[in-house]
Amino acid sequence: MTMDLEIIQRLQILLHLLRNRRVSQIAVRYDVSLACWEDGLYTGDDGCVMNRSHLTSNRLFTYAWNNVWQYGKGRRAYELANSGFKVGRVLL
């Protein structure tokens, strides 16, 4: 039995969101800040930023490393900041 590719992709996005939510809850419980690369806050291939309300931790920092304007990724730091995340830009 084969699953439709769209169903598999939706399940992967759901698991990604649930994992991030769980990690955020653990951080709140132990009163720690979280930091992650920007990739972890985008859902799927559509390039949508994860909804900030899905994460319970207020101390969440993200590092925007994929910020090359020529590749169309330079806006990612702005998208994350406008979605409520604290952003640091990384020059690689």
Describe the model.
The chain has 2 helices and 5 strands. With 92 residues, it is α/β, with parallel strands linked by helices. The protein has one domain (5-89). The termini are far apart. 35% of the residues lie in helices and 18% in strands. The chain is flat, with a radius of gyration of 14 Å. The model has no long low-confidence stretch (mean pLDDT 80). The chain has helices at residues 5-29, 76-82, and strands at 34-37, 42-43, 48-49, 60-64, 86-89. The strands form 2 sheets. The chain has a 3-stranded parallel β-sheet, with helices on one face. Strands 2-3 form a two-stranded antiparallel sheet.
Annotate the secondary structure layout.
Elements: H1 5-29, E1 34-37, E2 42-43, E3 48-49, E4 60-64, H2 76-82, E5 86-89
Parallel strand pairs: 1-4, 4-5
Antiparallel strand pairs: 2-3
Strand order of the largest sheet: 1-4-5
Shape, per Cα inertia axes: flat
Number of domains: 1
Beta-strand fraction estimate: 15-25%
Sheet of most strands: 3 strands, parallel
Say how many strands there are: 5
Kindly provide the radius of gyration, computed on alpha-carbon positions and rounded to a whole number of angstroms: 14 Å
Weakly predicted, low-confidence segments: none
Structural class: alpha/beta
Q: List SSEs in N-to-C order.
A: HEEEEHE
Output mean pLDDT. Answer: 80
Helix content: 25-40%
Q: How many DSSP H or I helices?
A: 2
First-last Cα distance: 44 Å
